[in-house]
Each structure stands twice: as C-alpha cells, then as structure tokens.
Amino acid sequence: MTTTAPAPPAVKSYSALQMSMRRLVRHKAAMISLAFIVLVLLTAIFAPLIAPHDPNAQDLGGFFAPPSASYPLGQDELGRDLLSRIFYGGRISLVVGFSVAIISVLVGTLVGLMAGYFGGLTDSAISRFIEFMLSLPTLPLQLTISGLFAASDAPFIANLRQNLGSSASVVIIITIFSVFGWMGTARLVRGEVLRLKNLEYVDAARALGANNNRVMWRHLAPNMLGIIVVSATIDIAGAILGEAALSFLGFGIQPPVSTWGNMLSNAQEVVLSYPWLPFYPGLMILFTVLAFNFLGDGLRDAFDPKGRR
Amino acid sequence: MAMYALRRILQMIPLLLLISLVIFGLTALQPGDPVDQLIFGNPRITPEDIARLREAYGLNTPWPERYWTWLLRAFHGEFGYSRDFGIPATQFIFTQRLPNTLLLTIPALVISTLIAVPLGIYSAIRQYTFMDYVLTFFSFVAFSAPVFWIGVMALYLFAVLLPQATNGAISLPPGGLGSLSPEDGFWPFWLDRLKYLIMPLSILMFREIAVTMRFMRSSFLEVIGQDFVRTAKAKGLPNRSVLFKHALRNALIPIVTILGLSIPGLFGGAVLTETVFSWPGMGRALIDSLVSKDFNVVMLCLMLLAILTVVFQLIADLAYALVDPRIRYS
C-alpha cells in the first residue's frame, strides 16, 4: 500500500539575502542612486566612445570659452573640452574610490576580526593603535606625505614614475588613502565579532573541530557581509571626496591625468570670472558621493535584521 | 581626572615622535638640500663655499643623525628659521598664523554645536515629518559635498553675482583677513574682520553641523525609547520636562564623543577653507611652505596641528566626564 506524503503548503521561502535585496529594491533613494552610479560608471568606461573631444586636446582659440554647441560645458584655461574631461576624469576618481575602498575594507576586516576574535592583549594593542590613527590630523598629513612623495627622487618612487608615467600619482594617492582609511571598518567588524563570537553556532562550529581560521573566515566573516558592504560603499564616497580635496590643494593626482578633483585646482581664482569651470566637476563629485552615501544608507537598512519595512 | 589628563598628554609624545620621524625621513628623500636652494641664483659662490656651508649646517651627516639634532632642538622650542620669511619658524607661526586658525576653528566648533544640537532634537521629536526629511536630506548633502567646492561657489555667489544683482547692497569680500585700512576703533575693526570671517566660518561649519545634528538625532531617539523616559511620562510629568530635563541630559553624552572624533576633520576643513578664502592661517602656511620647500615651517605646522587635535580631543573627553557623572577617569 502506498501513501503519498501530503504536499507541502505552497509558501514561497526567501533566503536572508533575498529578503535584503527585496528591501533594498523598495528603498527609493538607494535605487535612484544605484541607477546614477551605473550611469556614471558607463560614461567612465565608454569615455573614448562618447567624449566629443580628446580630453587633452588644446584649442588655442578657445581659452576659457563659455559653453557652446560643440563644447556643451565650455572650455578650460587651455581650451580643453570640459565635458570630455569630466568623462575621463570620472575614470580616475572612480578607480581611486573603488581601490581605496577595497583595500581599506580588506585590511579593516582582517584587523577587526583579529581584535574581536582573539581579544585580550591583541585587542587592546589593535584598539590603541586605531585610537592613535584616529587622533592624527589626517588631511594635513596626507597632503604633506603626498607632496613629499611627488617631489622625491627615492629609488622606489623613481621606479614607479618610470613604469607608470603620469599615473604614478594615482598609485601614491591610493596607497596614502588606504593607510589612513581602514580604521572605520576595523572598528565596525570588531564590534560585530564581539557580538557574534559567543553565539551557539560558533560554539557548534568549534565543537565540530573548526580551527580559529575557519571560524573567523567561514563562520564570522560571511555573517558580517552586510556591514562590510555598507562600510565599503561609504569608503568609496570618502575616498572620492578625499582625492578631490587633495587634488584641489595641488597635492593629489597630477596633470595631465584629469580627475574631478584636479579640475578644481585653482578653482577659487577661476570662479570669479569663469564660474562654469569649477561648477560642473564639483557637481559630479557631489552627485556621485551623494549617490554612494544614499546607497550605503539603503544597504544598511536592507541588511539590518531588525528592519522589516 | 588630572591624572587622566596627564596620561593623555603623555600619550601625545609617541604621536609627535612618529609624525616628525616620518615627515623628516620623507624630507630627506627630497632632491637637493637647503644649501642648493640657498645658493640658487648666486653665481659668485665657489664649490669650497658650498662644501663649507654643507659642513656648517651638518648636511653631510646621515638623516637619522640630523633628525636627532632636530629633535633635541625642537624639545627646547627651537624649530629653526623660515627660509621664506627670514624669521624663526615659531615666531612666524605663533604670531602670524596660529591666531588666525584659532579664530576660525574655535568659533566654528562652538557655533556649529549650538546650531546642530537644537536641530538634532527637533529632527528627533518630529521624526518622519516633512522637516525631519528636509534636515536629513541637508545632512546627506553636507556629508557628500566637497566643502571647498561649496566655498568656491559661495565665493561666486556673494562676491560676484549678488553684488552685481543688488548693486553692491549684498556683498562679501572674496578673501583675506580684513580690509587693508580698516577704520580705527574696536568696533569698526571687528565689524570689518567679521565681514571677512563670515564666509569661511559658515563653510567650515557646514559639515560639522550635519555630523553633530545626525548624531544628536539618533542619540535623542535612542534615549526617548528607554524605560526611564516611559516612567517619567507615566508619572504624569509634562512632555516638555520629560524631553528637555530627563531625555536631553542623557542624549547629550554621546555627542561629546562625536565632537572629539570630528576634531581632525575640523583642522582638515580649516586647511581647505583657508585656501579657498586666502585666509592666512596655519593650513595655508603648511601648503605654501611645502610648495617652497621651507621644511622647518612644514614640521612646525604639523607638530602644532597634531598637538591641537589631541588637546581639543582631550577637552572633549574631560567634558564627557562633566556631563556624565557615571564616567570617572582614573
């Protein structure tokens, strides 16, 4: 005699990730931001195809020319097309943002995991060091270090310059920002580890014979994916802003490479006569950074297990 | 508490040592040395003179040794001469630059807190209302905007566009510390100074206000969800006294920490603001001396900025103990 098991009730189940994604999709500001970020990414990737002019081509008749039909956003002090420079500048600004965020988040996660998991002396050493880093006057130090590196003739800097040419300053800036950028993630991850490490599932994993490494990377880290992604998003925003500030002061990424930041150098002198020149690059920075911050906010809500909106 | 303050001040020593060591090491990697710049444009100098100069300034010794010499002198308050200005670096910074930076940063910190705390409370009490959304949106913009760019655009607005539109009725100076020849007397002088201060100060406060306001909002929301607030309400206390006596005191405590954490950003912001508005402060001095390789001034500026950052943070920490009786530093 055969009996068939009763069919399970037709309830669709969602994984935690799926539920988070559903919450994210409902977050309007985050979705608009995401669309904007994708748009900016596309203009950066396809800059050679869509830019109306060569970003470095100088037009001797067009110094400081106001916006016109063939130069929609006007021309700069060397007659270069502002719109094309914004498309190309986005490439560098985004590369800096993403690189710094990825490096900072990797370092921050590693350091935070160690501090939270091992506790004791490791934790207090790491925590003191983080406090130390947070009490540094960040921007003055960054600009001094960047300025000194740029002018230095030390062998490793000379090598870098020889191999990368004008992009050497991009690598220097990414390095400097990463050195000063990992503490936020480290603190967040440490706090989260302290909360998670005494839960039953971690005990269970350990009882099954998992070693420290396995517990840290296979059981703790995946549970923190949410806050890590949020942290990375905020870090991208911070790095784009930081690059802009340093380049504005003249100690960031050096011409002829264009970034949204170094298109603003000398902005305070130019603005009095040619206000459109600093206006558009600054607007791109504002919108892009705003978009990453809104996206980060949306992701935070989406990953928050308490949020059931 | 005195012991705690002392310990914090002692902790400054490794901080200053590390910063000075790194920066000094980096200056040693620079092409050329001070003598190269000293003899620049002097055709009559002989190689023997140059060698003598190098010997006299100790430039033949390896840089760690030079660092040690610098450190010993710095410990006695001697930071060398500013090559650009021909006066001791300390005299240049302390008499001409530091006061201007403090004139910008201290009011920025105080006024922005005074504005941000009520705004944060308002935003929390009126959570999810129209005004709350407006304030939230404002703070997102302030977090995200390159502050120097806002400054540049304000410069255009208040120094070019509005003066033209209103025939000079609304007009702010495009930069600098004050008029070249202000009228005599205390009030005319400070009124003139205020006109020059108003834009840099507002721009510097922009971000501070947003940060403090957001934290005040979330701190206040957290406190008014707690049991003791419900108890106070249940006792029949008027809403006003529950919010402003019971809740406010507790909500203010974390704000002090946030103020401490925002100090490095304040001095970073000052560097940018001073550049935008040609405000002759320490940030501007740091940048100018870095460009002209006047490293004695660079070192002194960084040391002072680090000390100021730590001292301001220490004040915030001590204020923490004042507002929260549960905190005892020992």
From TrEMBL, chain A:
Record Pfam families: BPD_transp_1, OppC_N
Keyword Transport: yes
Primary residence: membrane
Subcellular location(s) of the protein: Cell membrane
Organism of derivation: Deinococcus arenicola
Membrane-crossing residue ranges in chain numbering: 29-51, 92-117, 129-150, 170-189, 224-253, 273-296
Name this polypeptide is given: ABC transporter permease
Record-linked CDD domains: TM_PBP2
Keywords: Cell membrane, Membrane, Transmembrane, Transmembrane helix, Transport
PANTHER family given in the database record: D,D-DIPEPTIDE TRANSPORT SYSTEM PERMEASE PROTEIN DDPC-RELATED, OLIGOPEPTIDE TRANSPORT SYSTEM PERMEASE PROTEIN APPC
Domain ABC transmembrane type-1, first and last residues per copy: 90-296
UniProtKB/TrEMBL annotation, chain B:
TM ranges: 102-122, 134-159, 196-216, 251-277, 297-323
Keyword ATP-binding appears in the UniProt entry: no
Keywords linked to the UniProt accession: Cell membrane, Membrane, Transmembrane, Transmembrane helix, Transport
Subcellular locations according to the entry: Cell membrane
Topology class, membrane: Multi-pass membrane protein
SUPFAM superfamilies xrefs: MetI-like
Domain of life: Bacteria
Domain ABC transmembrane type-1: 98-316
InterPro entries named among the record's database cross-references: BPD_transp_1_N (IPR045621), MetI-like (IPR000515), MetI-like_sf (IPR035906)
Name of the protein: ABC transporter permease
Organism: Deinococcus arenicola
